[in-house]
Predict the 3D structure of the following.
Amino acid sequence: MAHYFENEGMTQSNEKKIKVVINNELFTFITDHNVFSKSGLDFGTRTLLESINVKKLNGDILDFGCGYGPIGIYLGKNNLNVDMIDINLRALNLARKNAELNRVKVNIFESNIYENVTKKYNYIITNPPIRVGKKILYEILFGAKEYLTEGGHLILVVHKDQGAKSLVKDLEKRYQIQILQKNKGFYVIDCYNALTI
């Protein structure tokens, strides 16, 4: 079976609608085979979104690895300026449908890591694709620095069984780190791109 961060070897499409409540807001999402968490909002993403105070967010936001769109669409529903990227073409197609379905205006485009990203963001928010392996994962997380404004934030969620503690130690070498939430093994990590002196 193809991973959700690949376009080769896709199984036949079988779209279905799911209902999801995030922070007391109801969303409808269309999901499909070969996208992450097709049967419902995964606990990590829920923990991530419920840890973020959207009223304090401002400026431009990038949803990295958007999948079928729950992070970016949730943020867009709260009147934030959101770009959403993924390498999975099926996921991008679903994200576009879901933005329309939930009446949210967001900018969605294909990008292999940051290949097609052309600006800097105040926030990059992600449930990163751990299965890509450490080399590419670190390219995503440390590469984010180049696409964050000074004083911007990379906010991510990772499970302790996927190396959250060692990841925090590595991230501390490049960012100022704050753990926003720990919930059933999931760590929500705020990586602050400190102002250079």
